[in-house]
Amino acid sequence: MDLGLKNKVALVAAASRGLGRAVAEELAVEGVSLVLCSRSEEAINQAANEIAQATGAKVLAVAADVSKADEIARLTQFGFERFGRIDILVTNAGGPPAGQFENLSQEQWEAATRLTLFSAVELARQVLPGMKARRWGRILNITSIAVQQPVDNLILSNSLRAAVTGFARTLANEVAPFGITVNNIMPGYTRTDRVEELARQTSEKTGASLTDAFAKWEREVPMGRIGEPREFAALAAFLASERASYITGSSIAVDGGWIRSLL
Questions:
Q1: What is the distance between the terminal CA atoms of the chain, rounded to a whole angstrom?
Q2: pTM above 0.85, yes or no
Q3: For 28, phi and psi rounded to 5 degrees?
Q4: What's the helix, strand, coil split of the chain in %, to 5?
């Protein structure tokens, strides 16, 4: 299937590893030029070099903390200077810390809000004027299955990724007349550093082994296994494509059937 992505430009946040890295790789294979960021300059440079060498894509690496508005402005400006435009935005950030309500401070709530919600809002603010002028754009927000079915001990993620979903669903209607789509992708338990970190925390809290922690999640998933980042990235590439031009305002799970609700 020709996705119509050749020569498009995408900004993918938190792209040095995990889901962001997988999405960047998938888009590069489709002929997309990339603006990639992470907080670690060394890590994002390495990821950019590896993707460029493997796919031949044009890749710009920028060290930036997306919880800070001035760094988002600097990141997008570098992208505009290098490529002239940003057609596809993939918002993404490391998950906020696990914990229960009574153990989380006001400062932790504020930091998580900047990281999870405000980063998506500010990234969209920077790229939307150009998308509207060109009457074409794709915004994809990487959220979580926790939006639809809250996960125990993840009250920050449950709350703030739901807020991103409300923002995105409303924005989708506002920008649809300009040929811009806004969608959310909800990853389930996927083999990433974030899930391995949650497994370690579960192990420390319960005394179970890491193997037992993963086995418990696998039992909860109807497909009986943890997902792979490339499986998530395949949907992201489709939603970013010309072929997905009539899909907007949606939240789609890539979770092996973990979410039990009808809708």
A1: 28
A2: yes
A3: -60, -40
A4: 55, 15, 30
- Calculated CA dihedral for residues 192, 193, 195, 196, nearest 10 degrees: 120
pLDDT of residue 249: 98
Cβ partners under 8 Å of residue 154, min gap 6: 95, 98, 146
The predicted-structure confidence for 115-159, as pLDDT tens digits, reads as follows 999 999 999 999 999 999 999 999 999 999 999 989 888 999 999
Burial of 43: CB neighbours in 10 Å, binned 0-12, 13-18, 19+: middle
Q: Is the pLDDT of residue 20 over 80?
A: yes
- Listed in sequence order, the residues at least 6 apart from 30 whose beta carbon sits closer than 8 Å to its beta carbon are 3, 5, 6, 237, 241
Cα 231 to its chain centre, rounded Å, is: 14
- Among 52, 181, 78, 209, smallest CA distance to 124 is for 181
Residue 93 has pLDDT above 90, yes or no: yes
Per the listing, tokens 């979580």 go with 144
Q: Is the pLDDT of residue 263 over 80?
A: no
Alpha helices in the chain (DSSP H): 18-29, 41-55, 69-83, 106-112, 119-134, 155-175, 193-206, 210-220, 229-239
Measured CA to CA in angstroms, residue 7 lies from 71, 85, 88, 222, 231 at distances of 26, 11, 11, 38, 23
